Amino acid sequence: PTMNRLRLAFTVAAFTFAVAVSADEVKLSNVHLCCNACVKGAEKAAAKAAGATVTVDKDAGTVAISASNKAAIQQAVDALVAAGYYGKSSDASVKLAANAGATDAKVSSLKLEGVHLCCAKCVTAVQKAVSSVAGVKGNTAEKNAKVFEVTGDFSAKAVLDALHNAGLTGNVAK
User: Fold this and answer.
1) Which end of the chain has fewer surrounding CB within 10 Å, N or C?
2) Residue pair 45/73 in contact by the 8 Å Cβ criterion
3) Would you tell me how many other CB atoms lie within 10 Å of the CB of residue 171?
């Protein structure tokens, strides 16, 4: 009986320890990571969340975030989105903010801010995504731009959806 109690106590202690140290992990896929500056930007953004660990795989286009709880993971994901990155979450409970300020209504001009534009490849990806939207005639995206404008006769939501499909995001500028 004493040995059984000891085994039970050890099993409970081991289980409690395993639960205490277990970490949640979420992987974002299809994230735009064309260069080392993109990788560093994603790492720096996600590191703002206390307790989150970030692993960026440029070649796979993934960002893996682990932490002891979902709240820390969500903070890291929110920081990535705020830095202009976007992807598909492996966990439906971890949400990526989407289409901030965009509607389906047709517009002739849309100013976007917060889009990740660190290099010529980022600019090309943004231009390709934006120009794929029906009705878009042009855009002023350029390297390191804080704000750029899209012109034509198009849906603002469709522009942000196209950016999301390219692994990027931004917000409608005020």
Assistant:
1) N
2) no
3) 20
